[in-house]
Design goal:
419 residues, mainly beta, AttH-like fold, ten-stranded antiparallel β-sheet, 2 helices, 47% strand
């Protein structure tokens, strides 16, 4: 099983092409000693190197975005209550106040049995510090730490056991941040880390040269790299929020995305995953061209299936279409979300809804957005539930009319980037 994790994700992601130059000859060695073809795989990702946050000359710009996040769908072992937990450390852009990265953090917990939903939007001060081992060794590890007046967060990874641990707390109590603490450890299972899109890059950015979409994988302009773990299991976990400590168990879905981009044009999106009763899982991301949830961007839509045997398939464009049938307006923010709809997928038709609509996270570092449990049915909107998952819905354009802002507030400075 360890081989699932030691591989570097190669060009199962990008179609391999070989070009032989018949007019070139070698000046050393014999023809029998060397192949005219390149036989080595071309990795788009290098693991475990890429589990770390990314720095260096490529990611020094104000458009830099990187986040890890995981969700737990499971239960409280003390009561049997069905819960979800969302934990998401960001590192992005540039914060002039401390001449370094901005480091917001997002947290949410839903209790379906009690109908409670808690969320937090914490902005950590300063930047991460920590220690790490040699990423080319079998005992590679790292530990990040960040703390300040708003709270504290530690992230630990151990390569030998494929174990992640997140420890954090915040005592800030206001409209945007409910006090919380957590200590959650989980272990990655097969199929391990896989690309979110089969070509390995997600072109969700905008740049200032145009205007329009221009992408450069050398500088990651307008692009992100994106990996995910569809199967992992909590080995130990406690979460305290709302005056109650939860002793959690359940299944984890992990994702890690990084690049240089701004969500300007495609500011409205719907992301999620579902685990079906037959062991299949699927995930999607669908963007929308403008205000409202009825004009999706076919060119920006992706869909992925992780079968019960851990084989993976990908699809794009009209292969996945979500059509809202009922919109819900948040009483807190006034934003509107498509909590009910029909999903046309390569696996068939599903009817999407949620057991609890009040799962909106307020945004002290941006617009409000949904982070919560959802489900899918078959045979109609009142048919049997066949899968449960987690979704994120964001309507950034509702709060930020980007096109009305001065260009220097929207776009990164490309003057030192080789375009």
């Amino acid at each position: 099983m360890k081989s699932n994790f030691r591989i570097m994700l190669t060009v199962m992601i990008i179609a391999l092409s070989v070009l032989a130059f018949t007019g070139c000859t070698s000046t050393s060695g014999s023809a029998e000693e060397h192949s005219i073809f390149s036989m080595e795989p071309q990795p788009l990702y290098q693991l475990p190197h890429d589990h770390r946050f990314h720095r260096g000359s490529t990611y020094i710009h104000n458009d830099y975005n990187e986040w890890q996040y995981f969700t737990v769908l499971g239960t409280d072992k003390k009561t049997g209550d069905e819960i979800s937990v969302f934990i998401c450390p960001f590192t992005q852009g540039w914060n002039a106040n401390h001449d370094g990265r901005s480091n917001p953090f997002y947290f949410a917990l839903t209790n379906l049995n009690t109908g409670e939903f808690y969320s937090a939007n914490t902005l950590f001060e300063g930047d991460y510090t920590g220690v790490a081992g040699d990423p080319d060794s079998d005992d590679f590890f790292f530990e990040y730490h960040i703390s300040g007046s708003t709270g504290e967060l530690t992230i630990m990874y151990d390569y030998a056991t494929e174990t992640w641990r997140y420890i954090g707390h915040s005592d800030v109590d206001n409209a945007d941040n409910t006090p919380y603490s957590f200590d959650v450890t989980y272990t990655v299972e097969a199929p391990g880390y896989i690309p979110a899109a089969y070509h390995g890059l997600e072109n969700i950015g905008w740049d200032s040269v145009g205007p329009g979409y221009r992408h450069n994988p050398e500088t990651m302009a307008g692009l992100t790299r994106y990996i995910q773990v569809p199967r992992a299991v909590v080995t130990e976990g406690t979460v305290t929020v709302g005056g109650r400590e939860y002793d959690i168990e359940g299944d984890v879905w992990y994702e890690h995305q990084w690049g240089n981009f701004r969500n300007v044009e495609s500011a409205q999106y719907f992301w999620g995953y579902m685990r079906l009763e037959d062991g299949t899982a699927f995930t999607w991301r669908q963007y929308y061209k403008g205000m409202g949830w009825d004009d999706y961007d076919e060119g920006m839509t992706r869909f992925q299936v992780i079968h019960a045997d851990n084989s993976v398939e990908y699809a794009f464009g009209p292969s996945f279409v979500f059509t809202p049938t009922e919109l819900w307006e948040s009483p807190q923010s006034g934003q509107v979300y498509p909590w009910t709809g029909v999903m046309e997928t390569p696996l068939g038709t599903f009817y999407f809804d949620t057991p609890l609509k009040e799962q909106e996270t307020p945004g002290n570092t941006g617009p409000a957005f949904i982070e919560g449990i959802a489900q899918v049915r078959v045979d109609g909107p009142d048919g049997p539930v066949v899968g449960r998952g987690f979704v994120e819905m964001a309507d950034i354009a509702a709060r930020f009319p980007f096109r009305d802002l001065p260009e220097e507030e929207i776009f990164m400075d490309f003057s030192k980037v080789n375009r």
